[in-house]
Design a protein that fits this description.
This protein is mainly alpha-helical. It is built from 15 helices and no strands.
Length: 318
Amino acid sequence: MNLDNCGSRINSGFSRISEQFRSPWTRLFITLGLFAVLSSQLDMTNIARILGTLDAATATVIIAMNLSLFPLFAKRWQLVASELGMELPFRQLLGAIWAAAFVGQFGPTLLVSEATRFQMLRQQASAAQLVTSQIVDRISGQIVLFALVLLLLPFYSFSTHDWTSKLIAGTAGLVGIASLVVLLTKQRIRSLIGPSGKQAIRILGKRGLTGHYCVSLVIQCLLTLNFCLAAIGLGLVDHLFPLIVLIPPVLAALTLLPITISDWGTREATALLILASSGLNPESIVAISLVYGSCYVVASLPGGLFLVRGKFRRKERS
């Protein structure tokens, strides 16, 4: 589909997404179901005991690190938008990012957040331009994240020998093959997706860690660091190196599974699956994931103010 001719369809599509996930029943059912399964398999008393050891100072640092992520997200979006010829004020981008993070706590993060970002800035640019910038912004982070997984492939393949590592290695291999296919067929792709798609490919096809890719790398490193800080805050400092190596696949998997409320349940289940190779017991892994998620929720709360202010501004314009 030609992106330049689908503005109204994109707008209505985002509206349908928002309407679909406004009703909480599906996402609530999946989230509660996952936690019910986890609760039946784990020692909840032990998880509560581990959470009780959380160092308040470390938790504060994690929240502060999460707060620093929002300006980075906004800066990456601004860099992408400028490549598309869109001059969007940083403050408006930051407000949209923060509001999207807040709304993302009530639905599948990827879908609801993107819909919120679009609605917050839909009067600042054409629908095709805005959505193209959002797609490129997201893909930039995905490319860097999966590149990290690929770079860590030797560790998964040779340093450990369980089925989890083989699964990660196989997934990374498939991503590599898919990237190669896209690279070989990019001319055909350009002819199919129109001028906006060509701009997206041009931006994403830039080589080297410059611009948005550099910001994406910093973002992924901070997200990984937050997971490690959660472990440190719980006194689980004996398995930091395996955690550093295994966290990128956890983050990558979460981007492919936007099915629960703010990734609750899927994050814990994914962490249990992948971080089992770290040597941590299951209860410790879930505790780390809960601290990581809770600190992000706290950091996203100011986004509610940006959301309310954005709604008032739209009402004044109308």
